[in-house]
Amino acid sequence: MKPFSTIYASNRDLYPLSQANTTLRPSPESHLSKRKVSDKARYFFHKKYNNRYIFILQLCLLFLFPVGLIAQSSVLDQYVAEGVQSNLALQQENQQLQQSVQDLKSAKSFFTPEVSFLADYTLANGGRDIIVPVGDLLNPVYASLNQLTDSQQFPQIENAEEQLFPNNFHDTRIGIRQPLFNTDIYYGYQAQKSLISVQEAKRDAYVRELTKEIKTSYYNYLKSQELLRIYDSTEVLLNELLRINQVLVKNNKATKDVVYSAQFELDDLESKVAEAERNQALAKSYFNFLLNRPLEEAIIVDTTITSEGAVTTDPTLTSSVNALQSQALAQREELNQLQSAIEANEAAIKLSKGAKVPDLSLGFFAGFQGFGYTFDEEQRYYLAQFQLAVPLFTGGRNNTRVQKATIEAARTRTQYEEVQAQIKVEVIEASRNLRAAQATVTAKTSALKSASERFKIIKRKYEENQALLVEYLDARTKFTNAATATAIARYDLLIRKAELERVAAL
Questions:
Q1: How many CB atoms lie within 10 A of CB 255?
Q2: What is the set of domains in the chain, with CATH numbers?
Q3: How many C-beta atoms lie closer than 10 Å to residue 114's C-beta?
Q4: What pairing do the DSSP bridges indicate for beta strands 129-132 and 160-163?
Q5: Bridge partners, 347 (sequence order)
Q6: Is the pLDDT of residue 171 over 60?
Q7: Residue 421 reports pLDDT greater than 60
Q8: Which of 55, 74, 215, 321 would bridge with 498, disulfide CB 3.0–4.6 Å?
């Protein structure tokens, strides 16, 4: 398979670049002496403008589209890095990941003691009273003692009456609570760790998808720009053809149908230019959107992406489907995401089952308590508590939670198997698409070579007045169409490669 530069070198006589290459063409003098005005116009047209058109078209294809070569662009790498840093959707993924990290820190904090400062102060008046029948209990005893001793040493006392609500009472203390055994805390922490892994894998999967989208939009932009260059070169030829045909009609050397034919070619070209400009504008806007830049910001064009000699054999074109599938199954972030989700579900099952296990915690309080803020020895106290909570009956709620968690875990495992199969299909499709694109490039390049050879023959025959103008136009049209088809095929090959890199995690 020859690069376009080889085709150009083998047909140097068809596409002269200097006066030294004019030996194959008859001299102007011989044509002026043997041909009529129409022959003069033909020769002048092809000498001055056709070679210039071919030269411009050759340069476009020579520098941008060698056959079967795929190079890595440093410019495109920089754009991908910029997109990873600035893409708005990716920023949201990173923010969600940060939220998950904070949730993990919150879950971890339950393992540490909870220390708090508490202060209560009570003012009260009225309400219920507490009556202590001290007088009723002691007065008969005191009366008997006085009678026995013949004295009044034991006076009569009143029953004690105290207000139920304490007045001017405070309780100022420091409290510490420490869980000693709690399955909810442990398995909740494990589940949150797995959820962070889920979010990380989700973020990484989006990075890979974003990379593919940036490359695809960049290739589409370059493809539309190259088509516009080819159309511009074609327009130069068609405008001159229209002018020459108008001269021929004016001098009664041709009928007006040649003018209409040339004008039709120009109008048809304008529709193609409009379509290419639309595609270029859309590709430019979408590319800048992915990079979070102004939509009309200029894009640097890297013509070395398909430059000759950059890469002679791309490994993705020769890798087997089984090897690509193994690579994808080992590296695809979607599978890592589901695996982490399975681990989170397993932790949720243990969390639900742990609701049947007793919880044990320790509480300790130290401070001052009493009437008035004296903070003396009489008010100082401390209190230690061990709390054991044993669930006895919950109406089946725990069993329901266990069943729901088990079903969710089974659903996630099924989804994991489905995604595995889906990835294998994606790899097969992307691999075949890439190989088909490579075959298309080969076929289109061969067609371009055939079109150039045919144009070479028709050009010589036309210069010798042995071919009609319609034959020349047909040969030129097919050559231009072959050039545009080759350009499209080669950039489509790059797009298919980016898609395979995405699905195979290359």
A1: 11
A2: 4-107+186-348+399-504 (1.20.1600.10)
A3: 13
A4: antiparallel
A5: none
A6: yes
A7: yes
A8: 215
DSSP tally for the chain: helices H, then strands E: 14, 6
Q: How far is CA 396 from CA 183, 356, 359, 391, 404, in A?
A: 19, 11, 19, 12, 13
Alpha-carbon distance of 245 to 257, in angstroms, equals: 9
* Block residue for tokens 């190079």: 71
Sequence-separated contacts (24+) of 49-55 with Cβ below 8 Å: 49/236, 49/237, 49/240, 50/237, 50/459, 50/476, 51/15, 51/16, 52/236, 53/233, 53/234, 53/236, 53/237, 54/14, 54/15, 55/15, 55/17
* Exposure class string for 128-158: b at 16+ Cβ within 10 A, else e: eeeeeeeeeeebeebeeeeeeeeeeebeeee
- The token duo for 178 is 């420490």
Give the residue among 200, 195, 202, 201 at the shortest CA–CA distance from 342: 195
For residue 216, the model assigns a pLDDT of 92
Q: Return the structure tokens found at 428.
A: 């097969």
Instruction: Note the helical H segments in 110-182.
Output: 134-149
In this predicted structure, the answer to whether residue 182 has a pLDDT above a threshold of 80 is yes
What is the value of pTM for the model shown?
0.69
Q: With contact defined as beta carbons under 8 Å apart, do 53 and 233 qualify?
A: yes
C-alpha distances (whole Å) from 468 to each of 32, 258, 370, 437, 459 are 19, 11, 120, 37, 10
What amino acid occupies position 380?
A: R
Q: Which residues, 6+ apart, have CB-to-CB distance to 325 below 8 Å?
A: 423, 424, 427, 428, 504
pLDDT above 90 for 288: yes
Q: Closest Cα to residue 441, out of 488, 479, 497?
A: 488
Q: Which residue in 17, 47, 16 sits closest to 32, CA to CA? A: 47
| Residue 378 backbone phi and psi in degrees, to 5 | -70, -30
Residue 506: C-alpha distances to residues 114, 232, 416, 465, 493 (Å): 49, 38, 21, 57, 16
Residues in the chain: 506
Q: Cα–Cα distance between 291 and 289 in angstroms, integer?
A: 5
